[in-house]
Inverse folding.
């Protein structure tokens, strides 16, 4: 996935300024695709230069604040990207390398790190559950709501799995 496509998606959902987009990104797509606010602003400039979005100055705002709107070319690009084949995402997980290193040079104090990580995953799972209860408690949902809920469910499943993984690793380390 690329950041430009994530930003186009967010702007199609709701046109907004760069700062609003960065805040929204942190609360939604940012759970699955990380980007700094600086990266978002740089990418907005590229999208505007490519003719995919149009930035309009906000009246009375300081510092040249712009509201961005997706143009037809941006919608066309997002549609093109959606039809591309996607390779499975490779696993690139530092924790797996750390556990392999523990296996060859341990014991170390990696249990403390696993406990800390499990706690972080519990916190994120709690946030996802709160979002689920707040945004998806209705019995009948639209297609769009069902797709958004499915993305949230993927996050819930991931956090649940990571908690279980950390707990299993802790159990193995404590038993040895």
């Amino acid at each position: 996935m690329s950041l430009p496509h994530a930003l186009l998606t967010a702007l199609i959902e709701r046109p907004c300024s760069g700062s609003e987009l960065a805040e929204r990104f942190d609360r939604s797509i940012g759970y699955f695709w990380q980007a700094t606010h600086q990266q978002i602003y740089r990418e907005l400039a590229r999208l505007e230069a490519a003719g995919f979005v149009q930035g309009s100055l906000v009246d009375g705002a300081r510092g040249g604040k712009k509201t961005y709107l997706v143009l037809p070319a941006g919608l066309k690009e997002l549609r093109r990207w959606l039809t591309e084949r996607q390779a499975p995402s490779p696993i690139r997980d530092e924790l797996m390398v750390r556990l392999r290193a523990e296996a060859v040079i341990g014991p170390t104090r990696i249990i403390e790190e696993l406990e800390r990580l499990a706690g972080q995953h519990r916190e994120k799972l709690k946030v996802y559950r709160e979002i689920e209860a707040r945004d998806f408690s209705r019995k009948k949902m639209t297609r769009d709501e069902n797709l958004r809920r499915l993305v949230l469910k993927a996050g819930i499943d991931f956090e649940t799995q990571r908690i279980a993984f950390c707990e299993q690793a802790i159990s193995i380390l404590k038993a040895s």
